Amino acid sequence: MNELVLTANAGDGTISALSLDRAQGRLVPLATSGQLPGCGTFAVDQATGLVYAAYKGDPAGIATLRLDRASGELTEVRRRPAGGSLTYLSLAHEGRFLLGVSYAVGHAWVWPVTDGVIGEPVGEFSYRNLHCIVVDGTCVYAVSLGEDLIAQFTLSADGVLAPMEPLVAEAPRGSGPRHLILDGANAYLVTEFSGEVIRYARSADGPLTRAEAVDVVVPDSGLAPSAYGLDPKTEPLIWGADVHRAGPWLLSSERSSSIITSTALGEGGTLGEPTAYTPTEAQPRGFAVTADGEYAVAVGERSTHAALSRVEADGSLTLLDRAPIGAAANWVRILT
């Protein structure tokens, strides 16, 4: 079965579904559906075929949608309000809990989920400008762009959050930590303001320790470091966005230059140097990589297409196909 690609299209409040046809090197559009104003994040429970998608409004909330894998159609099941406009959603404990963060209100929630019904929060915490929350087993990590840190918790089987020791892993002051991925004994963080990828060593019981960093901005790009409150759309500023692993490469996106940078990974996941800078869709806030690391799918906030690329042996990306999706897409997930 071909992989299914889902993109959140914030501009028109929809989710697009495409089939990734490896044999033809194509993205085949299937369906674009949903009434989800400003949708910029969703989490997928593949075991149940349910998608939990955030939407903006008054109040902002989360919609539960049922996915038809064959057609790509999403059918709304129910909605519930959230305490703020959500920036990132993740599932934990085999879909029994949904975790989300709000950049706007600087708050995080843990909701229990039963048969697609999202209950009242059983856990909450706050940091300024929370941008990302990721889960691995019982370990939960939440990235605060506003406070330059990663908050670290454990999540019990009944949804109780407990702080790790230490509670936070620091990021460089003013770097603007944004998205985080977990990869065995390592975690990789991309920064929005300084244009770095930072590797954190991850201990057996979970806490992160900052290990090393590399600059992933295109050399001689003319982009200056950014800061909270500045607008990269009006001046040439660094605007880091997303990060994913593709086999022996770490891929990261930068929106001002519309580039995906490929950084070599050494033994034990250590950071090497960037080896390729590949143009992609305009203003690439989000992208995803297939589980085997062979293909990447990128979308852009100033584009109405998704780009399928092959990850080459030297880390560069070769464009294979572009397919139409909704407007201002900013989130991608690839389902096996």
The CATH topology: Methylamine Dehydrogenase, Chain H
The CATH C-level name is: Mainly Beta
Instruction: Encode the helix/strand succession as letters.
Output: EEEEEEEEEEEEEEEEEEEEEEEEEEEEE
| Low-confidence residue ranges | none
Spatial shape: globular
Number of helices: 0
Which architecture name does CATH use? 7 Propeller
Q: How is this structure best described in words?
A:
With 336 residues, this protein is mostly beta strands. It has one domain: YVTN repeat-like/Quinoprotein amine dehydrogenase (Methylamine Dehydrogenase, Chain H). Helix content is 0%, strand content 57%. The strands form 7 sheets. Strands 8, 9, 10, 11 and 12 form a 5-stranded antiparallel sheet that branches. A 4-stranded antiparallel sheet has the order 3-2-1-29, with no helix packed on it. It is globular, with a radius of gyration of 18 Å. 50% of the residues are buried.
Question: What are the defining features of this structure?
Answer:
Lactonase_7-beta_prop, four-stranded antiparallel sheet, mainly beta, Methylamine Dehydrogenase, Chain H, Cycloisomerase_2, 29 strands, Beta-propeller fold lactonase family protein, WD40/YVTN_repeat-like_dom_sf, 336 residues
